[in-house]
């Protein structure tokens, strides 16, 4: 098969999933092309693949740790243009794929349907209307149109691939409100992880080691600082900070000896394997990677970002970690870290998810699913 993968560039979780699929399809002898933009396109290229530049689509905006729906709507509308849609149409015509997979990139879905190419939506969020609740008249009206649009998309695609554990283990289960009419088109693949646990190398950290991935956006620097202050309170616990593209580690002074900064890395998996706990935001991609490596999580979801807040709530309710806040002080962060290390139930539950991820083998499951659908 010739497969075209479109990637939403808002958050690198979309990119990681598509890279895992690209690796799997290529290993099985299929032809793969990527369409991406921004950090996403850069990560695809750093991984060793080529990628076609596509127009950006959804834009997420926020300030001081709070998601701003009005600003996000405005920036998204400013991004959309007929010329962008025509560019995607021309790309599909040029590459002539047998199947299009679109991870959160809606223009790719509409263009594939226009060209009558089978298209599958990859996503973990199916209740986007929550973003617009109680945000004023303008946001409310926008929410009505958004809900109608994505309900059309979900009912018109050839299939929906959910890159999460099947129920009852799904982390996205609070974000999964979808019409029963499309149930037959839904496929829970399991986590789509670029590197399986058994394949990953392991960083030789002093233990216990806390891995912090906070830093993908500049407004998360406040959490970054609080975790750093928590590290100063107990030198017997070690910390590794993977800072995101917009965070310069040199801005932080008086770094204690039990803290190591690594900057941004395209390959976090040896860091997961060498750690005992992950501190992250509420993004689905990093949560899946952490759980697939058997790690409990302290999740700091962006405030008023309904999807991330739901993910963090599930983590706490299921006993996979704790839901934190941008207002959580360093002393409480340290208390939560100690509680997770002292209570073995957290690690027992996340190790079970690691074993389940190995059995499900999400990338191979998606490949087999599509090969079965499109034989010949």
Automatic annotation (TrEMBL):
The keyword Transferase applies. It comes from the Archaea. Keywords: Transferase. Residues 18-163 form the Glycosyltransferase subfamily 4-like N-terminal domain. Residues 249-348 form the Glycosyl transferase family 28 C-terminal domain. Pfam families: Glyco_tran_28_C, Glyco_transf_4. One of its GO terms (molecular function) is hexosyltransferase activity. The keyword Transferase applies. Belongs to the glycosyltransferase 28 family. This is Glycosyltransferase.
